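Whether sequence alone determines local backbone shape is best considered at the level of individual chains. When preparing material for the folding task, we compiled for one chain both its residues and its backbone structure tokens. The sequence in question and its structure tokens are set out directly beneath this paragraph.
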Amino acid sequence: MPDLHWTIPVGRWSSWPAAASAAPDIGFIEPIVRRRLSTLSKVALKVAHDCVAQEPVRVVFASRHGELRRTTDILRSISAGEPVSPTAFSLSVLNAMTGVFGIARGDRSAASAVSAGAQTLGYALLEAYAQYATQADAPVLLVYADEPADLAYGTIEDEVQGGAIALLLEKDASAGHIVCSRSRADEAAGDPRDASRTASSDAASFPTQSQALLHCLETGAPARWHGAGAVWHWRWDERAA
């Protein structure tokens, strides 16, 4: 794949740490639905709600594992000859959160889901930008939420940290602009005269994409993630248009 470089306008953003001890406040969801949601969907709904008001918004949901833990429990029930809850089954799909979110808001805007292994967040940011670029007057909400897989699956390479991040892409871009790039690992160093690649090599490196992006969002410092034969880099650029 060729090198990629794009800039996203960020209106608002929110995050929820993997190590949070408190439960996320999702009081905007009806109690009967709230009780049935997994931790993954709850944190995703929390950060999504933080970023939008009442206006319609397209949603791109991203998760490497999605509702894998719920699915694993269902498989264990089947293996044990136990009945499977219809509600658990209906909420076991990757993008369960987007359906709940749209129903709660009465919003029928398009929603899509992305899962691309360890590079899930990076490609979701690209998908969100592509959707925004086709219709810049309509905002796009990117929601990333993940959690480590069940121990039954053994060791997973480049395992996720967990937690959630949401970014609202809109023309106002009151929070600023994030410059995103992806290059092949063997070309990441590049020519030292290439300013963008030099900046990437100088950025702090993190074990997961979510940790790298969150570091950039919180500190304003550039960050990168190296894996799967590629280097992903994020940095703020307030001058971007």
